[in-house]
Amino acid sequence: MPSSPSEELDGLVVTLDDLRYQYGGPNVPSETPHVFIYFITIENQSDRTVTLLGRKWIIHDEEGETLVVEGDKIVGEEPELVPGERFSYNSFHIGSCNATARGSFHGQDEFGNKIHCLIPPFELTIPE
């Protein structure tokens, strides 16, 4: 049975609140020493209650490589957002060079309809 299409829900707004850079660390692989820590807020400005079930990231680097990361949950959670509510979290990407990150969150509304919202692109730039 084919899966039903997902609707981009107007009013589900994603904002990059902050982006920090760190070089290396105790658990950071030497071949990808650049750590980009991002802080994101998802705000439900729609008229529907939504539950976010997962995310997809697409990271395209300056060397022409593309990494796609998909998974269930958002930092281990499935946030339910009533109209006017927001969910904020932080996580990170690691890399070996400058890149652009973009993606989407997916879930369902209170009626069981599949929904998604886009994560606006942002630059992962290594400071000079």
UniProtKB/TrEMBL annotation:
- Taxonomy, superkingdom: Bacteria
The record's Gene Ontology biological-process terms are:
error-free translesion synthesis
Q: Which PROSITE patterns match?
A: APAG
Q: Which residues form the ApaG domain?
A: 8-128
Which PANTHER family does this one have? F-BOX ONLY PROTEIN 3 (PTHR14289), POLYMERASE DELTA-INTERACTING PROTEIN 2 (PTHR14289:SF16)
Enumerate the Pfam families for this protein.
Answer: DUF525
InterPro entries, per the entry: ApaG_domain, ApaG_sf
User: By what name is this protein known?
Assistant: ApaG domain
